[in-house]
Design a protein that fits this description.
Order of helices and strands of chain B: HEEEEEEHEEEEE
Number of domains of chain B: 1
Oligomer: heterodimer
Order of helices and strands of chain A: HHHHHHHHHHHH
Number of strands of chain B: 11
Number of domains of chain A: 1
Strand content of chain A: under 5%
Helix content of chain B: 10-25%
Structural class of chain A: mainly alpha
Strand order of the largest sheet of chain B: 1-4-5-7-8-9-10-11
Structural class of chain B: mainly beta
Distance between the termini of chain B: 36 Å
CATH superfamily of chain B: Lipid/polyisoprenoid-binding, YceI-like
Strand content of chain B: over 45%
Chain lengths: 273, 197
């Protein structure tokens, strides 16, 4: 008999969303509502994997990076300007970090294969984090990017044969949605900063790479996920209200995030499992 | 009298050799570790690992023995390896991070020592199973064990083998996905044959 918290919809969707809403509401006044995304991700991770870090597997490294990324994000917001250079620097550092995360998998491959996979993973993570962190000063766009990227990564991971990674991706989307909802309800923008954008971009990118290296998500589907943060850069009139901006940008990022899943579904129709 | 002396000398020479530990290499064609897991509280699903290596070291006279079995996690086979109308087969899902995480942990290893004997036959093995990087104790009960000259090569080498069973909780190894719909308790049914080197 499934208990309430054993249900995947609760673990990957409802619980991270509720925690995201609570954290966004609590910290909105302190301009730290962006903590919602790391808190929501950690909630899902607790239900799905638990907080055990021995041995330190790739999945556990990703979970460990959620609070670490939020903390680094807070420090960056305090001491660095939300400039493009900072976003690129965080992207490059995240790309290098992805090698550490997936080292246990790469080290088992042939040298050439390991180099290709490692370089591909680092490039992908660097691109996603740079694009997402580039939205640090634009909280509605950042929230929409997190929503589309998280849900898109989750859906693609489920189709790539890993439900647990799928739930982690969906949790990111749900928590980003909570961050966005707080702004919509209050009809007021808050600070996303690197506190939101770094965990959102880094965790989504790592969940995506994990779905490729540890399961069966094809690389081309992962590459298509870049459309989600790109869609958040589409110009939207600034004079329209925050909820309208959020709806327009969310529609764009959700549509873009759904492209890989639709692509995979059309290529190979059928139920995930 | 001479015959008696020769027989005594021969026995004296051969006795230590007979008591020495003998190494037997697992025969992968006749060794398939099986398992059962309950699905939805309804039926017990059977699965097995198709690629296994390892060895036994036995000293029947001294009643000591060890076993080391290495299972390739990607070789899991639950009889559902064709996708049909689904995106992925059950075996593909079982290789994913949700279960065996075969890309990161390509092997699971059991190392055990025979701790209880019935005459020269081991009846219980206490060992350690390493799965998903976690090592936990797993006890196997040897239901059947026999050694005999291998009739396939005219008795020129010895073959030993048998069946052993045990249980484990997969959550203790960090494999938590799908509990309780897919049961936490796993029953191991190990059939093995090993050829003396």
């Amino acid at each position: 008999m499934l208990s309430f918290f054993d249900h995947p919809a609760i673990q990957g969707g409802v619980a991270p969303f509720v925690v995201g809403v609570v954290v966004a509401a609590l910290f909105f006044r302190f301009r730290l509502a962006g903590l919602a995304v790391a808190a929501g991700f950690c909630t899902a991770a607790y239900f799905i994997n638990g907080f055990s870090f021995t041995p330190l597997t790739a999945t556990r490294k990703i979970i460990l990076l959620a609070p670490a990324a939020a903390l680094i994000g807070i420090l960056c917001d305090a001491f660095a300007r939300p400039a493009r250079a900072t976003a690129v620097a965080l992207g490059l550092a995240s790309g290098a970090l992805s090698i550490w995360v997936f080292w246990s998998v790469l080290v088992q491959k042939d040298l050439l294969q390991a180099l290709a996979l490692g370089a591909g993973a680092a490039l992908w993570v660097a691109l996603v984090v740079s694009l997402t962190c580039g939205l640090a000063a634009q909280p509605v766009r950042a929230g929409a990017a997190g929503l589309g990227l998280g849900l898109g990564t989750g859906a693609a991971a489920v189709l790539g044969a890993t439900a647990s990674y799928g739930l982690l991706g969906i949790a990111l989307g749900a928590a980003a949605g909570a961050f966005l909802l707080a702004q919509m309800i209050l009809n007021r923008k808050t600070d996303a900063g690197f506190t939101f954008t770094l965990p959102a971009g880094l965790l989504a990118a790592l969940v995506g790479v994990g779905s490729v290296l540890l399961a069966q998500l094809p690389w081309h589907a992962l590459a298509l996920l870049l459309l989600a943060p790109l869609a958040a850069h589409v110009p939207v009139p600034e004079r329209v209200s925050v909820p309208v901006q959020a709806v327009i940008l969310s529609a764009l990022t959700l549509a873009a995030g759904a492209v890989p899943a639709v692509f995979m579904w059309r290529a190979e129709p059928g139920l995930p499992f | 009298m001479k015959k008696l002396v020769f027989a005594t000398i021969a026995a004296a020479i051969s006795a230590p050799a007979a008591a020495a530990p003998e190494t037997y290499v697992i025969d992968p064609r006749h060794t398939f570790p099986h398992f059962t897991v309950n699905h939805l509280g309804v039926a017990n699903i059977y699965g097995r690992f198709n690629r296994t290596t390892g060895r036994l070291i036995l000293d029947k006279a001294a009643r000591t023995g060890t076993i080391e079995v290495v299972l390739e996690t990607a070789s899991i086979d639950t009889g559902d390896n064709e996708r049909g109308e689904r995106k992925r087969s059950r075996d593909e899902h079982l290789r994913s991070p949700d279960f065996f995480n075969a890309a990161e942990f390509p092997q699971m290893i059991y190392k055990g020592t025979a701790t209880k004997w019935n005459d020269d036959t081991p009846v219980e093995i206490d060992g350690q199973l390493t799965l998903l990087g976690v090592t936990r104790p797993v006890r196997l009960t040897v239901d059947h064990f026999r050694c005999l000259p291998d009739p396939r090569v005219g008795g020129k080498r010895e073959v030993c083998g048998g069946n052993a069973t045990g249980t484990l909780r997969r959550s203790e190894f960090g494999m938590k996905f799908g509990i309780p719909g897919t049961s936490d308790e796993i029953r191991l049914l190990m059939q093995f044959e090993a050829l003396r080197q």
